[in-house]
Specification:
The chain is of the alpha/beta class. The chain has one domain: Rossmann fold. Helices cover 32% and strands 15% of the residues. The protein is built from 16 helices and 15 strands. The strands form two sheets. The protein has a twelve-stranded mixed β-sheet with strand order 2-5-6-8-10-9-11-12-13-14-1-15, with helices on both faces. It has a three-stranded mixed β-sheet with strand order 3-4-7, with no helix packed on it. Strand 3 and strand 4 form a beta hairpin. The longest helix is centred in the last third of the chain and has 29 residues. Keywords: Hydrolase, Signal. One of its GO terms (molecular function) is hydrolase activity. It holds the Pfam family COesterase.
Amino acid sequence: MAMGWYCTTLTLLAGAGLAHSAALSAPATQIVDLDYAIHQGTLGSSGSYYNFSNIRYGETTTGADRFRAPKLPTSVDRRLNRGQNFTRCPQAHPAWLTTGYEVAIGEPTSALTHPAFNISQVPPVNPEESEDCLFLDVLVPTEAFSRRSSRRRTATVEAASGLPVLVWIDGGGFSAGYKHEMNATGLMTRKSGAGEDFIFVAMNYRVGLFGFLPAQLNGEGDSNAGLLDQRLALQWVQQYIHLFGGDSSRVTIMGESAGGGSVLHQITAYGGSRPIPFQKAILQSPGFQPNGSPGFQQSILEQTFSVASSLTNKSIRSISDLRSLTFEELHLLNSVIVGGSPYGIYTYGPVVDGSFAPDLPSRLIAQNRFAAASLQGLLMGTNHREGILFDSPFLANDSDYRANIRQFFPNMTQADLNYAATALYPNDLSGKYNYTTQPERAAITTAEGCFLCNTRWLAQALGPKTGKIWKYLFAVPPAIHADDLAYSFYNGPETKTWEELPVVEEVANVLQQYIVNFVVTGDPNGAAKEPGVMRKALPTPLGR
């Protein structure tokens, strides 16, 4: 090709929470010894892979270790662990998601509800939820595990013959998400164009108050603890995946929404000053609220202390005071603050901390302060109507629009806000700019500012260096944020989108094939095909 790099567009033009798969018994020989723990795999529902569930990758984060960076496991448990007890980190959801769902399924504005958050809406603590939640699952194809069992299991041997690895980082607004939310059975059973299998890893990481309290401001903890959890899990993969038959030099990380935003932060971690524990990345609708200023972070801390004091009738003025609360008190605090978040916002999320996140990813990319040389390829996707879920359908005028944008971009100067509202997204509802209402205007602004620009920046920065970047647009109606999840993790006709809409099987099959091909060969087309410039519709394979 004459171009020094290319960005292939895969456009899907056809027409959520998925439980972990059922497990069958497995032979006692399917055992992996990690030194600090012994795990036995169970046979997945398809019979084609072993699931090693609930493997500890970090010590408990309770007590004095709340709001701090995670630690590698130090406790040793030599009892056989079959992973029967599923664990997730404490979860929380904003009340505005109820209205967002109504918008997604096409309810008219006159029928929409926007209930004010009430503490009575907080559900009981899920038995799976615990502060001791740093666990991951490893899914290994049965044939590959058997081959691995016949070899001497060392990192050197596996590097020569081990399988590629896909590490999934679940999304959920940085306030929810857990390792077994998505059912990877369909993805696991799909062969690559090269005929090679892969290993699938999914992790828990701390979310909400537990994972994203800006604790570093007061010198009493570590901000971005949830991102540090992810990093520790990726380091665990580097150290132990060979024991499962994986190749630590062929690791792809993948995430959607907050998971995609997490992948972006992992790419730009430490400003590129440290090696990255992966080689390729898949970013689906990568998003986060850019929280850079110490003042904004301080306001989150003050809000947390104030609400905690009100809920507990105690004087809460520091991180140490928060650590003194019971798990139940912290869980309620997290639920109340996230639940009452402004429309489109989750309150807690990644912040600039001067260390893991020395600046916003966009600035780090612009300054070439990220691991560009180590990345061997990127596959990125966005949805056609990303922003509609996050912007209030009740915006009535230009003032409402400006207040909405200020909420999403708290560090925006007044001059920048004026420029956005007049030059980029002017108050012209004639349809000239592809919007005819204030909510549509806001949705386009949010989609571009919080999702689309993230992929564009990476493509512009990495394209000339690697030439191995692909991008797709998911346009299957209604093509709202997260609709592509059910396609990525398609498991047959029973699979539905989060709006309970049926999945177009033909599109799901092709999208899954692109993902698997990229994981195994580094090219969504598969190793046997020439990379292409553009295809406008599926299922046409990518080519010149």
